[in-house]
Specification:
Layout: E1 5-6, E2 10-22, E3 29-38, H1 44-58, E4 71-72, E5 87-94, E6 100-102, E7 120-131, E8 135-148, H2 159-163, H3 170-177
Parallel strand pairs: 5-8, 6-8
Antiparallel strand pairs: 1-7, 2-3, 2-7, 3-5, 4-5, 7-8
Length: 179
């Protein structure tokens, strides 16, 4: 395992840090978080450990087309995930054990409801190279600190919005549904 570094503050999404999630590709349970960074964040340390992982795995002659862990959020589905627009996206994961999760006073967070898609965090990560179907570098998730609350990322409409057209008389609902 390589050197551990701190990430810049990021907005968390697809947070699976208390309960592992099955990775469909590997068939293994893993803890993970999607990290949404501002484009102007300081990635110096993260980029350095990526280069270290490449050199450790392939030396001074790495293969071409290595997949790097930094993704341009505009390359994804920004209609479905508008929070990714004009951002840098990385994922960090681990299969070994759940990451430690603390608040800014370094007190453990035990309630999964406190860590949600939309809150802001920092993490400690390592980088490792892989060489299976593809060749690349990924971030290994070590620990997380909740930095502050944020607007929850919700990809579905509220019940009020879904059923607003039924509001009012029962016959209105019957007309809309054709019953």
């Amino acid at each position: 395992m390589g050197r551990k570094v701190y990430t810049p503050v990021f907005r968390a999404s697809f947070v699976h840090v208390f309960t592992p999630r099955l990775n469909q590709l590997s068939g293994k349970e893993e803890y993970s978080v999607k990290m949404i960074f501002d484009k102007d964040a300081n990635f110096t340390d993260m980029k350095a450990i990526v280069q270290e992982a490449i050199q450790e795995k392939w030396g001074t002659n790495p293969p071409k087309n290595i997949k790097l862990p930094f993704k341009d959020g505009n390359q994804g589905d920004t209609d479905k995930y508008p929070e990714d627009k004009d951002k840098i996206i990385c994922t960090a994961k681990t299969m070994i054990a759940p990451p430690g999760v603390v608040n800014r006073q370094c007190q453990p967070i035990m309630d999964p409801k406190e860590i949600y898609s939309g809150c802001y965090m920092i993490a400690t990560v390592t980088a490792y190279a892989y060489d299976n179907i593809a060749k690349g570098v990924a971030f290994g998730l070590q620990n997380l600190m909740k930095w502050e609350d944020g607007e929850p990322l919700v990809s579905r409409a509220s019940a009020e919005d879904d059923f607003a057209k039924f509001s009012g008389a029962a016959e209105n609902a019957e007309n809309i549904l054709g019953i």
